[in-house]
Specification:
Mean pLDDT is 86; it is low at 125-132. It is built from seven helices and no strands. It is mainly alpha-helical. It has helices at 5-17, 38-41, 43-51, 58-68, 83-86, 91-94, 96-106. The radius of gyration is 14 Å and the shape is globular. Helix content is 42%, strand content 0%. The chain has one domain (5-114). The protein binds iron/sulfur cluster (2 copies).
């Protein structure tokens, strides 16, 4: 299913911002600088990395995000570490399973969650229904 990037971003905003712990009660992003949210600041790279990965293993998506997104993110240190990620403050990393699921669902690819394990990103929420 072909979706424009704008359309895809809109779908992901609805799904991820809807469950994000940084979302304010009035529905707005609670970050000091909402434009800093790596998930949307680097959305074209996020979408490209996920759509180029066809795997049942979330580790492959994590690798693709590190290579295609973190590598160009200003928050990543020269040694590849990320303090924002370490503090579970990167929505892309924290909600990666949901982001992958939502993008693959929106583009007609099926993501099999059966291989998810504790090595995945530090989710701030449990994967669950986010279809609103
Ligand atoms: S931090 Fe990102 S995912 Fe969370 S509410 Fe703000 S824009 Fe949405
Ligand atoms: S984990 Fe860090 S380097 Fe990667 S996208 Fe998030 S903030 Fe950027």
């Amino acid at each position: 299913m072909d979706r424009s990037l704008v359309e895809l971003e809109e779908i992901i905003r609805k799904k991820i911002c809807g469950v994000c712990s940084d979302r304010r009660i009035d529905g707005q992003c609670g970050l000091e600088e909402p434009a800093d949210c790596a998930l949307f600041a680097l959305f074209p790279q996020v979408a490209r990395a996920i759509q180029a990965t066809h795997s049942k293993d979330i580790q492959d998506y994590i690798r693709a995000i590190r290579e295609g997104v973190c590598s160009v993110c200003a928050k990543q240190a020269a040694d590849g570490t990320c303090e924002t990620r370490r503090q579970v403050q990167c929505a892309l990393d924290a909600y990666l399973v949901l982001v992958v699921d939502a993008i693959e669902e929106a583009t007609g690819n099926r993501f099999d969650r059966s291989n998810l394990n504790s090595q995945g990103p530090a989710l701030r929420v449990q994967p669950g229904p986010a279809s609103h």
